Amino acid sequence: MASRARLFKEYKEVQRDRGQDSDIQLLCDETNIYRWTALIKGPTDTPYQEGVFQLAINVPEQYPLVPPQVRFVTKIFHPNVHFKTGEICLDILKTAWSPAWTLQSVCRAVIALLAHPEADSPLNCDCGNLLRSGDHRGYKSMALMYTRLAAATNV
Amino acid sequence: MASEEGSRSDSQGADTSDVSSNRHDEDLVVQFAAAAQPEMMRAAEKDEHYVGQVCEACYDAFRHTFGTRLAVAYQNEMKLAGRVLYYLLTTGAGLQTLGEEYCDIVQVAGVPGLPATPARRTLLVFYQTVLPYLAERLSARAASRGMYLGSEDGEDETSTSSQTSRVEETFGREETSSGSSGSVDPGNNMEIRQRRRAPLTWRLRQAWMAALRRWPQILPSVREGLVLLVRTHLMLFYFEGLYYHMGKRAAGIRYIFTGRPSQQRPRYQMLGMFLLIQLTFVCGHWLTRTVFPSIASSMRLRETNPSLSAVGSQGIAVIDEDGGKVEEKGPSRPSNMWAESEATASSKCPLCLSPRQHPTATPCGHVFCWNCVAEWCNEKPECPLCRAPVSHPELVCVYHADF
Protein backbone atom coordinates (compact mmCIF):
# COMPACT_ATOMS: atom_id res chain seq x y z
CA MET A 1 0.00 0.00 0.00
CA ALA A 2 2.99 2.23 0.50
CA SER A 3 3.58 1.86 -3.23
CA ARG A 4 0.10 3.13 -4.02
CA ALA A 5 0.50 6.18 -1.78
CA ARG A 6 3.83 7.01 -3.32
CA LEU A 7 2.55 6.53 -6.86
CA PHE A 8 -0.31 8.91 -6.08
CA LYS A 9 2.25 11.45 -4.94
CA GLU A 10 4.23 10.98 -8.10
CA TYR A 11 1.07 11.26 -10.15
CA LYS A 12 0.23 14.56 -8.49
CA GLU A 13 3.73 15.83 -9.06
CA VAL A 14 3.57 14.84 -12.70
CA GLN A 15 0.24 16.63 -13.05
CA ARG A 16 1.67 19.73 -11.42
CA ASP A 17 4.87 19.83 -13.46
CA ARG A 18 3.15 19.04 -16.72
CA GLY A 19 4.52 21.20 -19.49
CA GLN A 20 7.70 22.06 -17.63
CA ASP A 21 9.72 19.15 -18.96
CA SER A 22 8.73 18.82 -22.56
CA ASP A 23 11.09 15.88 -23.15
CA ILE A 24 9.16 13.55 -20.88
CA GLN A 25 5.48 12.94 -20.90
CA LEU A 26 4.31 10.54 -18.20
CA LEU A 27 0.84 9.11 -18.48
CA CYS A 28 -0.81 6.89 -15.92
CA ASP A 29 -3.23 4.16 -16.89
CA GLU A 30 -6.78 5.35 -16.20
CA THR A 31 -7.70 2.25 -14.23
CA ASN A 32 -4.43 0.96 -12.85
CA ILE A 33 -1.93 3.19 -11.14
CA TYR A 34 0.70 0.47 -11.44
CA ARG A 35 0.80 0.84 -15.21
CA TRP A 36 2.28 3.90 -16.81
CA THR A 37 3.25 5.00 -20.26
CA ALA A 38 6.01 7.46 -20.95
CA LEU A 39 6.74 9.33 -24.15
CA ILE A 40 10.31 10.55 -24.31
CA LYS A 41 11.96 12.71 -26.92
CA GLY A 42 15.26 11.56 -28.29
CA PRO A 43 18.12 13.75 -27.03
CA THR A 44 19.54 16.33 -29.42
CA ASP A 45 22.78 15.66 -31.32
CA THR A 46 22.07 11.95 -31.37
CA PRO A 47 20.54 9.84 -34.12
CA TYR A 48 17.41 9.66 -31.98
CA GLN A 49 16.73 13.37 -31.85
CA GLU A 50 13.80 13.45 -34.20
CA GLY A 51 12.00 10.57 -32.57
CA VAL A 52 9.46 10.17 -29.82
CA PHE A 53 9.79 6.85 -28.06
CA GLN A 54 7.12 5.13 -26.05
CA LEU A 55 8.07 3.36 -22.84
CA ALA A 56 5.87 0.91 -20.99
CA ILE A 57 6.38 1.10 -17.24
CA ASN A 58 5.18 -1.67 -15.00
CA VAL A 59 5.41 -0.81 -11.34
CA PRO A 60 5.67 -3.75 -8.93
CA GLU A 61 3.76 -3.84 -5.65
CA GLN A 62 6.95 -3.49 -3.62
CA TYR A 63 7.88 -0.23 -5.31
CA PRO A 64 9.90 1.81 -4.38
CA LEU A 65 11.93 -0.92 -2.70
CA VAL A 66 12.29 -2.65 -6.07
CA PRO A 67 12.72 -0.85 -9.39
CA PRO A 68 9.91 -0.44 -11.93
CA GLN A 69 10.08 -2.55 -15.07
CA VAL A 70 10.66 -0.30 -18.03
CA ARG A 71 10.82 -1.33 -21.67
CA PHE A 72 10.67 0.32 -25.03
CA VAL A 73 7.45 -0.13 -26.95
CA THR A 74 8.80 1.79 -29.91
CA LYS A 75 11.48 -0.03 -31.91
CA ILE A 76 14.88 1.45 -31.32
CA PHE A 77 18.38 0.60 -32.51
CA HIS A 78 20.54 1.03 -29.43
CA PRO A 79 23.21 -1.25 -27.96
CA ASN A 80 21.57 -1.38 -24.52
CA VAL A 81 18.01 -1.98 -25.69
CA HIS A 82 16.87 -5.37 -26.86
CA PHE A 83 15.75 -4.95 -30.42
CA LYS A 84 12.82 -7.37 -30.19
CA THR A 85 11.56 -7.10 -26.62
CA GLY A 86 12.51 -3.52 -25.87
CA GLU A 87 14.21 -4.55 -22.65
CA ILE A 88 16.59 -1.94 -21.30
CA CYS A 89 19.98 -2.69 -19.81
CA LEU A 90 20.43 0.06 -17.28
CA ASP A 91 22.08 -0.47 -13.92
CA ILE A 92 19.65 1.71 -11.98
CA LEU A 93 16.80 -0.45 -13.23
CA LYS A 94 18.57 -3.57 -12.02
CA THR A 95 21.18 -3.67 -9.28
CA ALA A 96 21.89 -0.02 -8.64
CA TRP A 97 18.29 0.91 -7.96
CA SER A 98 17.61 3.33 -5.16
CA PRO A 99 14.16 4.24 -3.85
CA ALA A 100 15.02 7.89 -4.23
CA TRP A 101 14.51 7.52 -7.98
CA THR A 102 11.09 8.41 -9.29
CA LEU A 103 9.40 7.44 -12.52
CA GLN A 104 10.25 10.89 -13.83
CA SER A 105 13.93 10.53 -12.99
CA VAL A 106 13.99 7.02 -14.43
CA CYS A 107 12.75 8.46 -17.71
CA ARG A 108 15.48 11.05 -17.52
CA ALA A 109 18.01 8.26 -17.01
CA VAL A 110 16.69 6.47 -20.07
CA ILE A 111 17.13 9.64 -22.11
CA ALA A 112 20.67 9.90 -20.80
CA LEU A 113 21.25 6.30 -21.84
CA LEU A 114 20.14 7.16 -25.38
CA ALA A 115 22.75 9.92 -25.46
CA HIS A 116 25.49 7.68 -24.04
CA PRO A 117 25.29 4.16 -25.42
CA GLU A 118 27.35 1.62 -23.49
CA ALA A 119 28.77 -0.80 -26.00
CA ASP A 120 30.41 -3.08 -23.42
CA SER A 121 27.19 -4.56 -22.08
CA PRO A 122 25.06 -4.86 -25.19
CA LEU A 123 21.59 -6.32 -25.45
CA ASN A 124 21.63 -5.56 -29.15
CA CYS A 125 24.86 -7.30 -30.21
CA ASP A 126 24.81 -6.02 -33.78
CA CYS A 127 24.63 -2.48 -32.57
CA GLY A 128 27.23 -3.14 -29.90
CA ASN A 129 29.60 -4.68 -32.44
CA LEU A 130 29.24 -1.68 -34.74
CA LEU A 131 30.25 0.63 -31.90
CA ARG A 132 33.00 -1.60 -30.60
CA SER A 133 34.54 -1.90 -34.02
CA GLY A 134 34.54 1.87 -34.24
CA ASP A 135 31.97 2.14 -37.02
CA HIS A 136 30.20 5.15 -35.58
CA ARG A 137 28.92 6.18 -38.96
CA GLY A 138 27.28 2.80 -39.46
CA TYR A 139 25.75 2.93 -36.01
CA LYS A 140 24.43 6.43 -36.57
CA SER A 141 22.87 5.67 -39.91
CA MET A 142 21.24 2.50 -38.62
CA ALA A 143 19.89 4.27 -35.54
CA LEU A 144 18.68 7.18 -37.63
CA MET A 145 16.95 4.85 -40.06
CA TYR A 146 15.06 3.06 -37.30
CA THR A 147 14.22 6.34 -35.62
CA ARG A 148 12.70 7.60 -38.86
CA LEU A 149 10.95 4.29 -39.48
CA ALA A 150 9.51 3.70 -36.04
CA ALA A 151 9.66 6.85 -33.96
CA ALA A 152 9.23 9.71 -36.40
CA THR A 153 7.08 12.45 -34.91
CA ASN A 154 5.48 13.57 -38.12
CA VAL A 155 3.84 10.22 -38.87
CA MET B 1 -54.14 18.78 33.05
CA ALA B 2 -54.59 21.25 35.86
CA SER B 3 -55.11 18.56 38.47
CA GLU B 4 -52.05 16.75 37.26
CA GLU B 5 -50.02 19.89 37.56
CA GLY B 6 -51.36 20.47 41.03
CA SER B 7 -50.43 17.02 42.26
CA ARG B 8 -47.03 17.30 40.73
CA SER B 9 -46.30 20.64 42.24
CA ASP B 10 -47.52 19.38 45.61
CA SER B 11 -44.92 16.70 45.51
CA GLN B 12 -42.28 19.28 44.63
CA GLY B 13 -40.71 21.88 46.85
CA ALA B 14 -42.67 24.57 48.67
CA ASP B 15 -41.57 27.48 46.51
CA THR B 16 -42.78 25.90 43.32
CA SER B 17 -46.16 25.08 44.81
CA ASP B 18 -46.38 28.69 45.85
CA VAL B 19 -45.80 29.78 42.31
CA SER B 20 -48.37 27.41 40.95
CA SER B 21 -50.97 28.40 43.55
CA ASN B 22 -50.38 32.01 42.64
CA ARG B 23 -51.06 31.05 39.09
CA HIS B 24 -54.17 29.23 40.21
CA ASP B 25 -55.40 32.48 41.66
CA GLU B 26 -54.79 34.34 38.45
CA ASP B 27 -56.48 31.94 36.07
CA LEU B 28 -57.27 28.30 36.20
CA VAL B 29 -55.62 27.48 32.90
CA VAL B 30 -52.11 26.58 33.89
CA GLN B 31 -49.38 27.01 31.38
CA PHE B 32 -46.38 24.74 31.46
CA ALA B 33 -43.16 26.16 30.24
CA ALA B 34 -42.13 25.06 26.80
CA ALA B 35 -39.41 22.48 26.84
CA ALA B 36 -35.89 23.76 26.35
CA GLN B 37 -33.53 22.52 23.66
CA PRO B 38 -31.31 20.37 25.89
CA GLU B 39 -34.26 18.36 27.14
CA MET B 40 -35.59 17.76 23.67
CA MET B 41 -32.22 16.71 22.37
CA ARG B 42 -31.58 14.46 25.32
CA ALA B 43 -34.99 12.87 24.87
CA ALA B 44 -34.34 12.34 21.17
CA GLU B 45 -30.99 10.72 21.88
CA LYS B 46 -32.49 8.47 24.49
CA ASP B 47 -35.24 7.50 22.07
CA GLU B 48 -32.72 6.71 19.36
CA HIS B 49 -30.92 4.45 21.79
CA TYR B 50 -34.10 2.54 22.65
CA VAL B 51 -35.16 2.41 19.00
CA GLY B 52 -31.81 0.83 18.25
CA GLN B 53 -32.42 -1.78 20.89
CA VAL B 54 -35.90 -2.56 19.57
CA CYS B 55 -34.56 -2.78 16.03
CA GLU B 56 -31.88 -5.17 17.16
CA ALA B 57 -34.42 -7.31 18.95
CA CYS B 58 -36.61 -7.36 15.83
CA TYR B 59 -33.65 -8.33 13.70
CA ASP B 60 -32.64 -11.11 16.08
CA ALA B 61 -36.15 -12.49 16.22
CA PHE B 62 -36.39 -12.42 12.44
CA ARG B 63 -33.01 -14.06 12.10
CA HIS B 64 -33.89 -16.89 14.46
CA THR B 65 -37.16 -17.51 12.65
CA PHE B 66 -36.21 -17.13 9.01
CA GLY B 67 -32.44 -17.56 8.94
CA THR B 68 -29.58 -15.17 8.43
CA ARG B 69 -29.84 -14.78 4.69
CA LEU B 70 -33.38 -13.46 4.73
CA ALA B 71 -32.57 -11.35 7.76
CA VAL B 72 -29.74 -9.65 5.93
CA ALA B 73 -31.90 -9.18 2.87
CA TYR B 74 -34.65 -7.53 4.91
CA GLN B 75 -32.35 -5.57 7.19
CA ASN B 76 -33.85 -2.20 6.35
CA GLU B 77 -37.37 -3.50 6.74
CA MET B 78 -36.47 -4.82 10.16
CA LYS B 79 -35.17 -1.42 11.11
CA LEU B 80 -38.39 0.13 9.91
CA ALA B 81 -40.40 -2.42 11.86
CA GLY B 82 -38.47 -1.64 15.02
CA ARG B 83 -39.05 2.08 14.64
CA VAL B 84 -42.71 1.68 13.88
CA LEU B 85 -43.17 -0.65 16.82
CA TYR B 86 -41.44 1.70 19.23
CA TYR B 87 -43.26 4.84 18.14
CA LEU B 88 -46.64 3.15 17.78
CA LEU B 89 -46.42 1.74 21.27
CA THR B 90 -45.37 5.07 22.77
CA THR B 91 -46.49 8.08 20.79
CA GLY B 92 -49.17 6.17 18.94
CA ALA B 93 -50.74 4.94 22.16
CA GLY B 94 -50.71 8.45 23.56
CA LEU B 95 -47.92 7.80 26.03
CA GLN B 96 -44.61 9.51 26.48
CA THR B 97 -41.69 7.83 24.81
CA LEU B 98 -39.01 6.58 27.13
CA GLY B 99 -36.77 9.49 26.28
CA GLU B 100 -39.53 12.03 26.88
CA GLU B 101 -40.36 10.46 30.19
CA TYR B 102 -36.72 10.55 31.17
CA CYS B 103 -36.55 14.27 30.44
CA ASP B 104 -40.00 15.18 31.81
CA ILE B 105 -41.39 16.53 28.59
CA VAL B 106 -44.80 15.93 27.06
CA GLN B 107 -46.00 16.28 23.50
CA VAL B 108 -48.68 18.87 22.88
CA ALA B 109 -50.31 20.00 19.70
CA GLY B 110 -49.71 23.55 18.66
CA VAL B 111 -50.07 26.63 20.79
CA PRO B 112 -53.08 25.80 23.01
CA GLY B 113 -51.07 23.13 24.78
CA LEU B 114 -53.62 20.38 24.46
CA PRO B 115 -52.54 16.77 24.05
CA ALA B 116 -52.16 15.76 20.43
CA THR B 117 -55.12 14.08 18.81
CA PRO B 118 -54.70 10.46 17.69
CA ALA B 119 -54.78 11.52 14.05
CA ARG B 120 -51.96 13.97 14.59
CA ARG B 121 -49.98 11.40 16.49
CA THR B 122 -50.44 8.86 13.74
CA LEU B 123 -49.27 11.43 11.25
CA LEU B 124 -46.19 12.06 13.37
CA VAL B 125 -45.40 8.37 13.59
CA PHE B 126 -45.80 8.14 9.85
CA TYR B 127 -43.48 11.08 9.27
CA GLN B 128 -40.90 9.71 11.63
CA THR B 129 -40.81 6.13 10.43
CA VAL B 130 -42.39 5.23 7.13
CA LEU B 131 -41.78 8.40 5.15
CA PRO B 132 -37.96 8.32 5.19
CA TYR B 133 -38.01 4.63 4.36
CA LEU B 134 -40.42 5.13 1.47
CA ALA B 135 -38.45 8.08 0.12
CA GLU B 136 -35.22 6.09 0.27
CA ARG B 137 -36.81 3.08 -1.42
CA LEU B 138 -38.46 5.10 -4.17
CA SER B 139 -35.36 7.10 -4.93
CA ALA B 140 -33.23 3.95 -5.07
CA ARG B 141 -35.70 2.32 -7.40
CA ALA B 142 -35.92 5.42 -9.58
CA ALA B 143 -32.14 5.61 -9.70
CA SER B 144 -31.73 2.00 -10.77
CA ARG B 145 -34.49 2.37 -13.34
CA GLY B 146 -32.94 5.56 -14.62
CA MET B 147 -29.56 3.89 -14.89
CA TYR B 148 -31.14 0.98 -16.73
CA LEU B 149 -32.83 3.38 -19.13
CA GLY B 150 -29.58 5.27 -19.55
CA SER B 151 -27.66 2.10 -20.41
CA GLU B 152 -30.46 0.79 -22.61
CA ASP B 153 -30.42 3.70 -24.96
CA GLY B 154 -26.79 4.45 -24.19
CA GLU B 155 -25.56 5.43 -27.61
CA ASP B 156 -28.80 6.65 -29.10
CA GLU B 157 -29.71 8.67 -26.03
CA THR B 158 -28.35 11.80 -27.63
CA SER B 159 -30.31 11.09 -30.76
CA THR B 160 -33.55 10.56 -28.87
CA SER B 161 -33.05 13.64 -26.81
CA SER B 162 -32.28 15.66 -29.88
CA GLN B 163 -35.31 14.10 -31.49
CA THR B 164 -37.58 15.04 -28.63
CA SER B 165 -36.18 18.51 -28.57
CA ARG B 166 -36.76 18.73 -32.29
CA VAL B 167 -40.29 17.52 -31.82
CA GLU B 168 -40.89 20.11 -29.17
CA GLU B 169 -39.42 22.72 -31.40
CA THR B 170 -41.67 21.79 -34.24
CA PHE B 171 -44.57 21.54 -31.85
CA GLY B 172 -43.92 25.05 -30.69
CA ARG B 173 -43.69 26.22 -34.23
CA GLU B 174 -46.81 24.35 -35.07
CA GLU B 175 -48.81 26.36 -32.61
CA THR B 176 -47.80 29.53 -34.37
CA SER B 177 -48.13 28.29 -37.92
CA SER B 178 -49.67 24.86 -38.17
CA GLY B 179 -49.42 24.34 -41.91
CA SER B 180 -45.73 24.86 -42.54
CA SER B 181 -44.31 22.63 -39.82
CA GLY B 182 -46.29 19.61 -40.97
CA SER B 183 -44.47 19.58 -44.25
CA VAL B 184 -41.00 19.82 -42.68
CA ASP B 185 -40.36 16.17 -41.97
CA PRO B 186 -42.65 13.19 -42.51
CA GLY B 187 -41.27 11.31 -39.50
CA ASN B 188 -41.89 14.21 -37.19
CA ASN B 189 -45.30 14.62 -38.67
CA MET B 190 -46.25 11.11 -37.57
CA GLU B 191 -45.08 11.72 -34.08
CA ILE B 192 -46.92 14.98 -33.87
CA ARG B 193 -50.07 13.27 -35.00
CA GLN B 194 -49.61 10.69 -32.28
CA ARG B 195 -49.14 13.45 -29.82
CA ARG B 196 -52.29 15.15 -30.93
CA ARG B 197 -54.22 12.01 -30.18
CA ALA B 198 -53.12 11.79 -26.57
CA PRO B 199 -51.17 14.92 -25.83
CA LEU B 200 -51.44 15.00 -22.06
CA THR B 201 -50.53 11.41 -21.25
CA TRP B 202 -47.78 11.44 -23.84
CA ARG B 203 -46.32 14.55 -22.40
CA LEU B 204 -46.61 13.24 -18.83
CA ARG B 205 -45.00 9.97 -19.81
CA GLN B 206 -42.22 11.73 -21.60
CA ALA B 207 -41.58 13.99 -18.63
CA TRP B 208 -41.60 11.00 -16.30
CA MET B 209 -39.11 9.14 -18.47
CA ALA B 210 -36.88 12.17 -18.67
CA ALA B 211 -37.05 12.61 -14.90
CA LEU B 212 -36.21 8.93 -14.38
CA ARG B 213 -33.29 9.18 -16.72
CA ARG B 214 -31.95 12.24 -15.01
CA TRP B 215 -32.51 10.98 -11.47
CA PRO B 216 -29.18 9.14 -11.04
CA GLN B 217 -27.32 12.30 -12.04
CA ILE B 218 -29.22 14.66 -9.79
CA LEU B 219 -29.41 12.27 -6.86
CA PRO B 220 -26.17 13.49 -5.26
CA SER B 221 -27.26 17.11 -5.45
CA VAL B 222 -30.65 16.18 -4.04
CA ARG B 223 -28.91 14.48 -1.15
CA GLU B 224 -26.74 17.52 -0.65
CA GLY B 225 -29.82 19.71 -0.65
CA LEU B 226 -31.45 17.45 1.92
CA VAL B 227 -28.43 17.72 4.17
CA LEU B 228 -28.63 21.48 3.87
CA LEU B 229 -32.33 21.38 4.64
CA VAL B 230 -31.72 19.30 7.74
CA ARG B 231 -29.03 21.71 8.80
CA THR B 232 -31.31 24.68 8.28
CA HIS B 233 -33.92 22.96 10.34
CA LEU B 234 -31.40 22.33 13.10
CA MET B 235 -30.46 26.00 12.96
CA LEU B 236 -34.08 27.00 13.38
CA PHE B 237 -34.30 24.63 16.32
CA TYR B 238 -31.30 26.22 17.93
CA PHE B 239 -32.88 29.64 17.51
CA GLU B 240 -36.50 29.08 18.40
CA GLY B 241 -36.28 25.77 20.24
CA LEU B 242 -39.60 24.37 19.10
CA TYR B 243 -39.15 21.38 16.84
CA TYR B 244 -36.12 19.12 16.97
CA HIS B 245 -37.43 16.69 14.35
CA MET B 246 -38.76 17.73 11.00
CA GLY B 247 -41.59 15.27 11.45
CA LYS B 248 -42.69 17.12 14.56
CA ARG B 249 -42.61 20.40 12.70
CA ALA B 250 -44.71 18.92 9.93
CA ALA B 251 -47.17 17.45 12.40
CA GLY B 252 -47.12 20.59 14.54
CA ILE B 253 -46.26 18.76 17.75
CA ARG B 254 -44.33 20.64 20.39
CA TYR B 255 -43.06 19.81 23.83
CA ILE B 256 -43.85 21.22 27.21
CA PHE B 257 -41.73 20.74 30.26
CA THR B 258 -43.46 19.17 33.24
CA GLY B 259 -40.53 18.54 35.49
CA ARG B 260 -39.02 20.51 38.31
CA PRO B 261 -38.06 23.88 36.92
CA SER B 262 -34.39 24.61 37.32
CA GLN B 263 -32.76 27.99 37.14
CA GLN B 264 -30.25 27.20 34.48
CA ARG B 265 -31.75 26.45 31.13
CA PRO B 266 -29.03 26.88 28.56
CA ARG B 267 -30.05 28.15 25.17
CA TYR B 268 -28.37 27.19 21.97
CA GLN B 269 -28.53 30.46 20.06
CA MET B 270 -24.75 30.44 19.76
CA LEU B 271 -24.77 27.12 17.92
CA GLY B 272 -27.52 28.47 15.73
CA MET B 273 -25.34 31.45 14.88
CA PHE B 274 -22.51 29.17 13.86
CA LEU B 275 -24.81 27.10 11.71
CA LEU B 276 -26.18 30.24 10.13
CA ILE B 277 -22.68 31.38 9.27
CA GLN B 278 -21.86 28.01 7.82
CA LEU B 279 -25.03 27.90 5.74
CA THR B 280 -24.38 31.40 4.49
CA PHE B 281 -20.96 30.35 3.34
CA VAL B 282 -22.29 27.25 1.65
CA CYS B 283 -24.96 29.25 -0.12
CA GLY B 284 -22.44 31.88 -1.16
CA HIS B 285 -20.13 29.22 -2.51
CA TRP B 286 -22.96 27.60 -4.37
CA LEU B 287 -23.94 30.92 -5.85
CA THR B 288 -20.42 31.64 -7.05
CA ARG B 289 -20.18 28.18 -8.48
CA THR B 290 -23.43 27.94 -10.37
CA VAL B 291 -25.18 31.25 -10.69
CA PHE B 292 -22.35 33.69 -11.29
CA PRO B 293 -20.72 31.77 -14.15
CA SER B 294 -24.01 31.65 -16.01
CA ILE B 295 -24.53 35.35 -15.37
CA ALA B 296 -21.00 36.04 -16.52
CA SER B 297 -21.43 33.99 -19.67
CA SER B 298 -24.72 35.66 -20.45
CA MET B 299 -22.95 38.96 -19.97
CA ARG B 300 -20.23 37.87 -22.31
CA LEU B 301 -22.85 37.08 -24.92
CA ARG B 302 -23.80 40.72 -24.82
CA GLU B 303 -20.52 41.87 -26.28
CA THR B 304 -22.10 45.02 -27.64
CA ASN B 305 -21.61 46.83 -24.38
CA PRO B 306 -17.85 47.03 -23.81
CA SER B 307 -17.96 47.69 -20.08
CA LEU B 308 -20.36 44.84 -19.46
CA SER B 309 -18.36 42.40 -21.55
CA ALA B 310 -15.20 43.39 -19.72
CA VAL B 311 -16.80 42.48 -16.41
CA GLY B 312 -18.05 39.24 -17.86
CA SER B 313 -14.74 38.09 -19.25
CA GLN B 314 -13.08 38.90 -15.97
CA GLY B 315 -15.60 36.75 -14.17
CA ILE B 316 -15.00 33.90 -16.55
CA ALA B 317 -11.26 34.01 -16.21
CA VAL B 318 -11.47 34.11 -12.44
CA ILE B 319 -13.78 31.17 -12.21
CA ASP B 320 -12.02 29.07 -14.80
CA GLU B 321 -8.81 29.26 -12.87
CA ASP B 322 -9.70 26.87 -10.11
CA GLY B 323 -13.27 25.70 -10.11
CA GLY B 324 -14.58 29.02 -8.84
CA LYS B 325 -13.39 28.41 -5.33
CA VAL B 326 -10.63 30.93 -4.99
CA GLU B 327 -11.58 34.09 -6.76
CA GLU B 328 -9.96 37.12 -5.29
CA LYS B 329 -6.66 35.47 -4.49
CA GLY B 330 -6.06 34.62 -8.14
CA PRO B 331 -2.73 36.28 -8.88
CA SER B 332 -1.22 35.79 -5.43
CA ARG B 333 -1.94 32.08 -5.31
CA PRO B 334 0.87 30.66 -7.44
CA SER B 335 3.52 32.45 -5.44
CA ASN B 336 1.93 31.20 -2.23
CA MET B 337 1.99 27.69 -3.54
CA TRP B 338 5.61 28.00 -4.49
CA ALA B 339 6.54 29.20 -1.04
CA GLU B 340 4.55 26.37 0.46
CA SER B 341 6.19 23.71 -1.66
CA GLU B 342 9.60 25.18 -0.92
CA ALA B 343 8.87 25.03 2.78
CA THR B 344 7.56 21.48 2.70
CA ALA B 345 10.26 20.22 0.36
CA SER B 346 12.78 20.33 3.17
CA SER B 347 10.57 18.30 5.51
CA LYS B 348 9.52 15.77 2.90
CA CYS B 349 10.85 12.25 2.83
CA PRO B 350 12.38 11.58 -0.60
CA LEU B 351 11.24 7.96 -0.46
CA CYS B 352 7.51 8.27 0.19
CA LEU B 353 7.36 11.90 -1.02
CA SER B 354 5.17 12.72 2.01
CA PRO B 355 5.94 14.74 5.13
CA ARG B 356 8.38 12.82 7.25
CA GLN B 357 7.08 10.53 9.96
CA HIS B 358 9.62 9.90 12.73
CA PRO B 359 12.50 11.63 10.92
CA THR B 360 15.53 9.40 10.85
CA ALA B 361 19.05 10.36 9.86
CA THR B 362 21.69 8.19 8.28
CA PRO B 363 25.37 8.59 9.20
CA CYS B 364 25.83 10.53 5.96
CA GLY B 365 23.28 13.06 7.15
CA HIS B 366 20.31 12.36 4.94
CA VAL B 367 16.93 12.32 6.64
CA PHE B 368 13.99 10.04 5.83
CA CYS B 369 10.97 8.53 7.52
CA TRP B 370 11.94 5.79 9.91
CA ASN B 371 9.77 3.24 8.13
CA CYS B 372 10.99 4.14 4.66
CA VAL B 373 14.69 4.03 5.35
CA ALA B 374 14.50 1.00 7.65
CA GLU B 375 12.64 -0.98 5.01
CA TRP B 376 15.15 0.02 2.37
CA CYS B 377 18.03 -1.00 4.64
CA ASN B 378 16.52 -4.46 4.86
CA GLU B 379 16.71 -4.50 1.09
CA LYS B 380 20.15 -2.95 0.73
CA PRO B 381 22.27 -1.36 3.45
CA GLU B 382 23.11 1.89 1.73
CA CYS B 383 21.80 5.44 1.75
CA PRO B 384 19.16 5.88 -0.95
CA LEU B 385 20.53 9.28 -1.85
CA CYS B 386 24.32 8.97 -1.73
CA ARG B 387 24.84 5.19 -1.53
CA ALA B 388 27.02 5.54 1.56
CA PRO B 389 26.92 2.31 3.56
CA VAL B 390 24.33 2.31 6.33
CA SER B 391 23.47 -0.37 8.81
CA HIS B 392 20.40 -0.54 10.96
CA PRO B 393 22.05 0.36 14.28
CA GLU B 394 23.48 3.50 12.72
CA LEU B 395 20.08 4.96 11.93
CA VAL B 396 19.21 7.75 14.33
CA CYS B 397 15.71 8.92 14.96
CA VAL B 398 15.97 12.71 15.27
CA TYR B 399 12.97 13.71 17.32
CA HIS B 400 14.46 16.71 19.01
CA ALA B 401 15.46 18.78 16.02
CA ASP B 402 13.12 21.24 14.41
CA PHE B 403 13.76 21.39 10.70
From TrEMBL, chain A:
Q: What InterPro entries would the database entry show?
A: Ub_conjugating_enzyme, UBC, UBQ-conjugating_AS, UBQ-conjugating_enzyme/RWD
Q: What is its EC number?
A: 2.3.2.23
Q: Name one GO biological process term.
A: peroxisome organization
Keyword check for Magnesium, yes or no: no
Q: Which domain of life is it from?
A: Eukaryota
Q: Which residues catalyse the reaction? A: 89
Judged by the first EC level, this protein's enzyme class is transferase
Give the record's keywords alphabetically.
Answer: ATP-binding, Nucleotide-binding, Peroxisome biogenesis, Transferase, Ubl conjugation pathway
One matching Pfam family: UQ_con
Its source organism is Riccia fluitans
- Kindly list the GO molecular function terms attached to this UniProt entry: ATP binding; ubiquitin conjugating enzyme activity
Q: Which ranges carry the UBC core domain? A: 2-152
The family note in this entry says: Belongs to the ubiquitin-conjugating enzyme family.
Protein's name according to its UniProt entry? E2 ubiquitin-conjugating enzyme
Q: Which SUPFAM superfamilies match?
A: UBC-like
- This protein's record includes keyword Transferase: yes
Automatic annotation (TrEMBL), chain B:
Which terms does the record give in the GO molecular function aspect?
Answer: ubiquitin protein ligase activity; zinc ion binding
Sorted alphabetically, which keywords does the UniProt record give?
Membrane, Metal-binding, Peroxisome, Peroxisome biogenesis, Protein transport, Transferase, Transmembrane, Transmembrane helix, Transport, Ubl conjugation pathway, Zinc, Zinc-finger
List the GO terms this entry assigns under cellular component, sorted alphabetically: peroxisomal membrane
- Extent of Polar residues compositional bias: 9-20
Q: Name one GO biological process term.
A: peroxisome organization
Query: Which top-level group of life is the source organism from?
Result: Eukaryota
Ranges of biased composition (kind: Basic and acidic residues): 166-176
> Where does it mainly reside?
membrane
Q: CDD domains recorded for this chain?
A: RING-HC_PEX10
Q: Which pathway does UniProt place it in?
A: Protein modification; protein ubiquitination
Residue ranges for the region (Disordered) are: 1-24, 149-190
Matching Pfam families: Pex2_Pex12, zf-RING_2
InterPro entries in the cross-refs? PEX2/10, Pex_N, Znf_RING, Znf_RING/FYVE/PHD, Znf_RING_CS
Q: Where in the cell is it found?
A: Peroxisome membrane
State the family named in the UniProt similarity comment for this chain: Belongs to the pex2/pex10/pex12 family.
This protein is called RING-type E3 ubiquitin transferase
Which species is the source of this protein?
A: Riccia fluitans
Question: Taxonomy-wise, where does this protein's organism fall, top ranks first?
Answer: Eukaryota, Viridiplantae, Streptophyta, Embryophyta, Marchantiophyta
